[in-house]
Every structure is written in structure tokens, then in C-alpha cells.
Amino acid sequence: MFLHFGVNTFTDSEWGTGQESPSIFNPTDLDANQWVDTAAQAGISLMILTAKHHDGFCLWPSKYTDHSVIGSPWENGHGDVVQEFVNAAKARGVDVGLYLSPWDRHDSRYGHIKEYNEYYLAQLQELLNKYGNVREIWFDGAKGSNTPNMTYYFSDWFSMVMELQSTINIFSDAGPGVRWVGNENGFAGSTCWSTINRTSLSIGNGSIVNYLNTGDPKGTDWLPAECDVSIRKGWFWHKSEAPKRLSELLEIYYNSVGRNCLLLLNVPPNTMGLISESDVQRLKEFRGAIDTIFTTNLAEKCSIESSTQRGGKSSNFGPENVLDNDHLWTYWAPSDEDSKDHWIEFKAKTGKIKFNVIRIQEAIGLGQRIKKHIIYVDGSQVAEGTTIGYKKLHRLEKGVVDAFSVKIKIVGSRGTPLISSVGFHFDPFWHPNEKEASQMVH
Q1: DSSP codes, 175-210
Q2: Looking at CB atoms within 10 Å, which of 70, 328, 351, 390 has the fewest?
Q3: What is the C-alpha separation between 73 and 75, in angstroms, rounded?
Q4: What is the rounded distance in angstroms from the CA atom of residue 82 to the CA atom of residue 59?
Q5: Taking the model in full, what pTM does it have?
Q6: Closest among 419, 426, 423, 384 to 401, alpha carbons compared
Q7: Residue 435 binned pLDDT confidence (cut-offs 50, 70, 90)
Q8: How far is Cα of residue 61 from the mean position of the Cα atoms in its chain?
Q9: In angstroms, rounded to a whole number, what is the distance separating the alpha carbons of residues 424 and 293?
């Protein structure tokens, strides 16, 4: 979960000017525990706060500027939003991430390369020294036109980050830990490799968005994509906006989590300093829907066969591994000697099984391998795809199927394909035929 919060919350804007008085930041009921409770109930494991957005206002009392909560009437200038956020997350066992905007529209040092980079490094050091374990730090190249020329010393910043927090993930257009997916719709490419060539990437470069979206099967760097999108139209809270419909959030889920990515969903606190009730309710619905769809795996009602099995029938690499609870380190491996197409087939033990979603997961700890796959139900093709990665979700375009058998055929792979988990699920919220009908009407 992303939390966009700051002076923009109080000025009804998305990008602040940097001229805002800190005194306008005055949440009346700020409660970081409510943010974290909302996230934890939605099954969110990591939360990222905008410690400083483009307007330069700092949500913690930085030693290096007075453009911060120090000048706010909130807590009589003695408050620290970052500290409250970190304390609340720690109490619930939720991981913490921080965003420190490189672009700063307030600070007079911006545009003076040496001075501003020193200021930025000093603030990074504050955030990564003072607030305990930070699991992700978020960098971007966003800045408006008519902005002073500014060179960011990204490599120095990254070195300092790694020195202060050795297990942290660094997010940016170019990694080095996590890459941007190339858009803010929450959609990854239908082909999405976790590998990419970092030498082809640079931060703030608009020409690489398609490359970021799909990754690169020949890439030498492991840089999985993260899909950032807001639950509302804007990133900051606006009174006039409402959360996206459940159907839209599920669409995002299938196109991010279901395409080998991490979903980073922004849920902005309001002027009270709370996540709005409408957003809390929508997140409950979203979590409820995900549980409804994925809690039952109809593949468990099937017997399984495979084309081959590494080490023969008595080995630990049998197809039954795709139905256990370990979705990472146990897997079906076909024989390494067999160069023909590999397949795994499920047959209903009694009657038919009824589903409209197929989930496939690779043993991603051993790399991403599968390049192309085709799925057959009772001998007829119902879906095909390219990459699988950590998780691939196929929502069947034809809607619900009643099946005796399901066959997953791997027709292209880098090395031996390793499948860790397979699921057949019923999504009661997915009505593709209604969609077609309504499009014909319109």
C-alpha cells in the first residue's frame, strides 16, 4: 500500500508548488494505527509513505530544513508522521517503505547540483538511520517542465542506502532492486519477465516504458516489476473523488499480481489524517473477493499425470507437488533429457469441476523459465500465454467451464520448466458474456 499524504491533502492538489505554508498541514485526528489496521485487514504486507513529495514539505522534523511538520499546528509542531507510521506498522508486523521525492519545488538548493545532492543525502541518512528497518525505498524521476536543470547522484544515493540498510529493496525506473512497470494503471505486460538489462535503463527516461512493462528474457539483471496505481483517480485525497469499483480493482489484480508483479495500491489519508470510510469499505470488499475466488482450489479434486518426471516416479519432483501448500520450493520437474513439449494433466476424480480462473506458478526461486504455454479443457484450447513467473492468472475469456480434464502444455522454456503450484478457481465476479452483451447494446 502506498500512502500519499502531505500539504497537497489540504490544498486539493496533486503537485504542490513548494510555496505552501507548513501551517496548512493540520490533520485533526491523525491515526497511523487506523492506516495499518486497514492495510493488514486487506492482506497488505508492506506500506510506503511519502515522507516528502515534490512540494518539499517533510512529514518528519528534519534537521536540514524548517519546511516540515515543525511549522505545523499539528501536535504544536512537535509531531512526526514518519515515526507514528513506523510505530504502527511495527506493532502489526507490517513492513515499512519510504518515498523521498528527488524533485523539490521548495528548497532553494534545488538546481545547485552539489548542494542539493548533499541535502538529499543528508535527509536519506536521517530517514534510514532514525526509523528502524526500512524494507523499500522509492525513487522516481518525476518532474515538471520549466524545472531547473538538476543532476541527481543516483549511484551515490543507492550506495548510501545499501550501507545504511543492507536488506532494503531499492525501487526506481532502473532498480537496482525493483523496477517500475512503466505506467500508473496497475497493468503489467501480458508478457512480463522479472529479468531485464539494467544497462538499457535510466531514471526518468520516457522512451523505455514498454521495455519496463515486458522485461527481457535475455536480461542479465533480476529486477521484478512493481505496479503502482491509486484506489482513486488522484494520488492524494480529494473530497470530490471516490474509490474505484470492485470490478476495476479485480481487473488491476489480474493484470498485476496475475502477471508476475507486485501490486502497490495507493490509499491516501484524508484531511482528518484517516483513510476514508469509503476506501476502508472498498478494501474490505476487495480482500473478501480475493478470498472468495482463491480460497478453494478445485484442482485438489483431480488426479494428476505428467509427460515425464525428473528422476523417475520415485523422485521428489512429481506432479503432486503442484497441489501442496508450498508455492516456492516444491515443484514438478519434467525429465531434463526430454526435449519434447512438457505437459501436466488434471482429471476430475468424480463428475466435473466448474471454474473460470486458472492459476499457474513457477518455482521462481530457481529463476523464470517458461516462455509459452497453452491450456486445454477436455481437449479444446481455452487459453494461451507467454510468461508465468511467480504467478499467472488466466481469467477464461469464454467464462465458466465444466471440465473433466485440464491439460497445461509448456511449448517454450529457457531450460527445464519447474511448476510449483496450479489452481482452478471460480470467480463469481467475472461475467465476460455480460460485458460483450453490454458492448453490443452500446
Answers
A1: -SSEEE-SSSSS---SS--SEE-GGG--TT-GGGHH
A2: 351
A3: 6
A4: 6
A5: 0.96
A6: 426
A7: low
A8: 29
A9: 10
